[in-house]
Amino acid sequence: MQARYDWLGHLHLLGRHTEALRGIAELEPDAVEALGAQHTVTIQVRQLHGLIAAETQEYEQSLASQRRLLDEVTGVLGATHRTTMVLRHDYGTVLRDAGRHGQAEKWLEALLRDEGKHLEPGDSMVAATTHSLAEAIASQDRTDEALALCRELLRTQVRDLPEGSLRTAATRRQLVRLLAGTGAYGEAAEQAHVLWSVYRGALGEEAPKTLTAAHQYGLQLHRAGRHQQAVEVLETVIEVRARVLGPTDRATLRSRMRFGDALAALAVADAEGRAHREWTAVREAAVREWGEEDELAQMAAEALGAGTGEP
């Protein structure tokens, strides 16, 4: 049963949702018969069904499916059992993704209160619920409240977890997004720099998450007006991404796009020409790989159109 579930999870990650749903329909009754309705694998199978429905934007189907499962599990295990709280969190995130931000906020606040009574402050579930609650609050144009929530969580994590712990990474990523959304690019750059350091120490210089954090650091430096530093950081990211992922990988091209933006902002000789060459290379690669209507191709074309012409 576990192997069948693992394969369905793999199909889900590959985006092969129709196959995964077909497999779930076959596996669920087998799991109930062989293991029982409250066995961990059975619950995971039913939970996966709700998550796939949410990811394919079948929100009402997902909410109905998850609520049935949640009610059954709550009746057997209680509302504050760890398995139940995981399901409660998932239900709250689907409410949020469905645009029911007010309902999601109330639901996740209630869950966070229960977690505060039954779990340690540094527990990963507390962090996950805080992140989801902050997103629900920010979606209601209350970014300052969301930032305060994330900052308080980060203070707790820094106090209770080992220095450089990866468990602070998700909180810092969320802070970068929220801060950038308010235009606080300097502080966003600071958080992105710490995040980059955390990933470098834990995962290595060339890990995808490390490079994504470095890219974010360069982007926020550029937005904060620190263009020379942005150029230096992004140039390093491009070199590593091109070597590890390939010169036409989407991540590499995104970094080249932002590198061109930072170059264009520098008031130095030949910077504009270098920027023009970066944007041209990005556009040509994006059109070749994904066509004229691709987002990166459009971004590069817009940057070229806003420039002063061929160098």
Protein architecture, described:
This protein has 311 residues and is mainly alpha-helical. The protein has 2 domains: 1-116, Serine Threonine Protein Phosphatase 5, Tetratricopeptide repeat, CATH 1.25.40; 165-311, Serine Threonine Protein Phosphatase 5, Tetratricopeptide repeat (Alpha Horseshoe), CATH 1.25.40. 79% of the residues lie in helices and 0% in strands. The longest helix has 20 residues, at 271-290.
User: What structural class do you assign from the helix and strand content?
Assistant: mainly alpha
- Strand percentage lies at under 5%
Work out the helix count.
Answer: 15
Largest sheet: none
State the order of secondary-structure elements, H for helix, E for strand: HHHHHHHHHHHHHHH
What general outline do the C-alpha atoms trace? globular
At CATH level 2, the architecture of the largest domain is Alpha Horseshoe
Query: What is the fold named in CATH at topology level of the largest domain?
Result: Serine Threonine Protein Phosphatase 5, Tetratricopeptide repeat
What is the number of beta strands?
A: 0
Number of domains: 2
Would you identify the regions where 5 or more consecutive residues have pLDDT less than 50?
Answer: 307-311
Rg, Cα atoms, Å: 23 Å
CATH homologous superfamily annotation of the largest domain = Tetratricopeptide repeat domain
The residue-averaged pLDDT reads: 90
* Cα distance spanning the termini: 63 Å
Q: Can I get a quick summary?
A:
With 311 residues, the protein is mostly helical.
